[in-house]
Structures are given as structure tokens and as C-alpha cells.
Design goal:
Blueprint: H1 2-5
Length: 81
């Protein structure tokens, strides 16, 4: 998809060993291939924001995604100033 729409972007494979983690900017497009190991693949996402961050209302097919931010069972606040 990236190579189709962004021909000037450099695409780099970052193959990491099983059990490793990847830490990257939210602006980094990332994906993985199908999990054929027979074991669950566990993922954890951590977002950091300052007290200056503002929620921006969006519309369209992905607009419901942000509603999960208010559900503490899905998106817990781990530090509240």
C-alpha cells in the first residue's frame, strides 16, 4: 500500500526475533505477517500525551475507534496528574 501511494518513501524490513518488542513513533507504519506459530501473539500499545493534548472529533469508518478511549477496561489511565 505504501509503495503504491508514496513512491518516494523508503520501505525497510525490520525483522526481529520472536519474543522481541518494537518501539516506534505513532507515525511509523508497521505491520506483521500472519502468525503461524500456534501460540498467541500478544500486543501492548502505550500512548503518551501531555496535559496540552486535545481530542479532535473525526467522522468516517474509523470514528468509533476513539470511543474506546473512554472505556477504562480497554484503555486504562496508568498515570493521572
Amino acid at each position: 500500500m505504501i509503495s503504491k501511494y508514496h513512491k518516494k518513501y523508503k520501505i525497510v524490513d525490520a525483522v526481529i526475533p520472536a519474543g522481541s518488542i518494537s518501539i516506534h513513533s505513532s507515525r511509523t507504519y508497521h505491520s506483521s505477517v500472519e502468525n503461524n506459530s500456534g501460540s498467541d501473539r500478544i500486543g501492548m500499545v502505550v500512548h503518551f500525551a501531555t496535559d496540552m493534548a486535545k481530542r479532535v472529533n473525526i467522522s468516517g469508518e474509523h470514528s468509533k475507534y476513539l470511543d474506546m478511549l473512554d472505556d477504562q477496561s480497554i484503555c486504562p489511565v496508568i498515570y493521572d496528574s
